[in-house]
Amino acid sequence: MNKRLLLILVAVVALAIGASAQSRKAVRINEVVVENTPEGIADEYGAHPAWIELFNSNFAPIEISSIFITTDPAHKVLYPVPLGDVNTKIPRRQHIIFWADNEPCKGTFHTNFTLTPGKDNYIAILDADSSLIDEVTVPATILPGQSWARTKDGSGEWKLRDGEGDRYITPSSANVIKDTNENIKDFAEKDAHGFGMAIMAMSIVFSALLVLCLSFYGIGKIGSLIARINKARSESTADNTISVVDVSHDTGEEIAAIVMALHEHLDAHDSENTILTINKVKRAYSPWSSKIYSLREVPQRNVRH
Fold first, then answer.
1. Rounded to two decimals, what is the model's pTM?
2. pLDDT, greater one: 55 or 237
3. How far apart, in whole angstroms, are the C-alpha atoms of residue 144 and residue 129?
C-alpha cells in the first residue's frame, strides 16, 4: 500500500513538473533596447540601462524563477533568474523587464551581462534543463533610444521602432496600442441613432426582471409545497397516534366508575361545558370598616321598671 502511494505521489510530482516546464515554453522575448537614453524608461535606481522585455503568451500565470537568460550563442554564460522573488511570476498575457546592466547585486531583474551598441546582440532564454525557449538577434543598425520589437505580443515579425507615428516603444505594455475599438466603431456606424442600443438595454433590463420574478414565484411555490407536505405529515402522525390511543382506551363503564370515584373522594369531576361548578369561598378576614374591630362597645341603656 505504501509503495502504491509513493508511486502515485511521484507520478503527481512528475506531472506537475512537466506541466510547469511546458507552461514556461510560452515565455517569449518581446522587445529589446540595446542603448537606452535619458528620455527612455529608468530602473528603480533612476539609471537608464539596456533592457529586455519578456512576455507571457499563455492564458495562465507562469513562474520564471528557474529559467536562464544569456547573450552567449554557445549558452555557456548564463544568468539564472533567482528563486524566492514573488515578482518572477508573470500574470497571464503580461510583461516583465530585465535590465542588462551587469549589476545583479541590484536585484532579481538586473542581469550579469550587458548589451553592446553597434554590434549584433544575441539574446536567448533557456529552461532549467538547458532547452531553448526563445531567441533573437538584435541587429547592429539599431540606434540609441530605438527598440527591436515584435509586431504583436509574443508573435509576429521583428521590426525596428523609433517612437515615431505608430512605431511606439512600449516597455511593460502591449506592442500594439489601439486608439479605437473596431467593434464600437462598427456598431456606431450601423446604429447611428441609438435605437438598437436602447432596445438592447431595455431587453436586458426586462429579461433580468422577468428572471427575478420567475425565481421569486418558484421559491414561493416550493415553500408552499413544503409547508403542505409538512402539514400532511403532521396530520398523518396525529391520526396514527389517536388510532393507537383509541384501541387502548377503557370501556365507557370503566371511565364512568373512575369519574364517580374522583367525585366522591376528591370532590372533583371532569370539565364539561354544560356543568357550572360554584365553590363557596370563606374569607378569614373582614374589611377594615367591619364593626367587629370597633374599639369600644356600644353603651347599653338601663331601663328602670
1. 0.58
2. 55
3. 35
